[in-house]
Amino acid sequence: MDFSKMIKFPTWNSLPPEFISSVLAMIIIIIFALIIHFKLKKYDPLTKPSTFLTAVEEIVNYADRQVIELMGEPFKGFGGYIVCVGAYIFLSFLIGMIGIPNFFQPEASWYLEALPNSFTNMAMPLSIALVTFCLTHFTAMKYKKLGYFKRYVEPVFLFLPVNLISMWSSLLSLTLRLFGNALAGYCIITIIYIGFGTIIPPLGNYAGLAITPFIAPFAHLFFDVFDGLIQLAVFCMLTMINISSEYISKEDLELEKQEKMALRHEKIEKRKQKLALKKAK
Asked: Does residue 141 contact residue 248 with C-beta atoms inside 8 Å?
């Protein structure tokens, strides 16, 4: 059977440029991680650290503090993931601002065009939102065991379809927030670059060339740098809150068991009282 007639497999040049931006951001993160690794191996603790290592240390310490404050001691060490996700989000916005020519796909129709923000393609924000989604439910299953599945039949079994649909709300929220902000910034900046030549007909494109350099830097500063930092903070904060909300300590589990046992005893006592009243009548 010739699957090529049924399924069109993607080639390197048919991949969207947002995917290339995403891969480029990950490669930059890997390179930085390797540089930090080798610098730390050569670092002498008795000497004064370089500015680069000092900055890295401050970022890591800040991430670890935020993890402990928002997630608690059981998630100590989770800061590494948060730093990587934050760096990936910020670099994606930064790549969209710099406009690196896409010379990675020589046979594509968008060859040498500026690489866009990877989050303007919904597949990219969906991918990192899926990681948060999987980590959230993995944490819930790890600590709550079989009690994890009770959420889908509460308060009664008839709510199962509704609970299954609402389960995906956090995934959609994280995805659409990143996608919407990135796409809105891209549209506004595109209007700035293209629109000025059409709104001043007598001067035409010359007006656009004269006005755009004064406005575009501020637009990039807001929609790529400032907005990128905001989305970084919001996404990382929601990730930490969503994951930590599924954690339950052994002490809390024991308290839950005791409360359930107490409720059962109350129900049994009430039934006994009702039966005693019926017999007395």
From this structure: no
Closest by alpha carbon to 117, among 254, 17, 234, 212? 17
Residue 226, number of CB atoms within 10 A of its CB? 13
Are the C-beta atoms of residues 168 and 174 closer than 8 Å to each other? no
- Whole-structure pTM value: 0.80
Using one digit for the tens of pLDDT, what is the confidence trace for 106-158? 888 878 888 888 898 888 999 999 999 998 888 888 887 777 787 777 777 77
- Is 231 inside a domain boundary? yes
The amino acid at residue 169 is S
- Whether residue 161 lies inside any domain: the answer is yes
**Helices 17-42 and 51-71: crossing angle, nearest 10°?**
110
Alpha carbon distance 112, 7 (integer Å): 29
Residues 86/87/88/91 CA torsion (nearest 10 deg):
120
| Total structural domains within the chain | 1
The count of other CB atoms within 10 Å of the CB of residue 204 is 12
Residue 2 lies in a domain: no
Q: Is residue 275 part of a domain?
A: no
**DSSP 8-state code for residue 101:** B
- Distance CA(217)–CA(234), nearest Å, equals 24
CA-wise closest residue to 64 among 81, 49, 77: 77
From residue 202, give the alpha-carbon distance in Å to each of 66, 208, 216.
Answer: 55, 12, 22
- Domain span at 203: 15-254
Q: Which of 150, 143, 147 is nearest to 251 (CA)?
A: 143
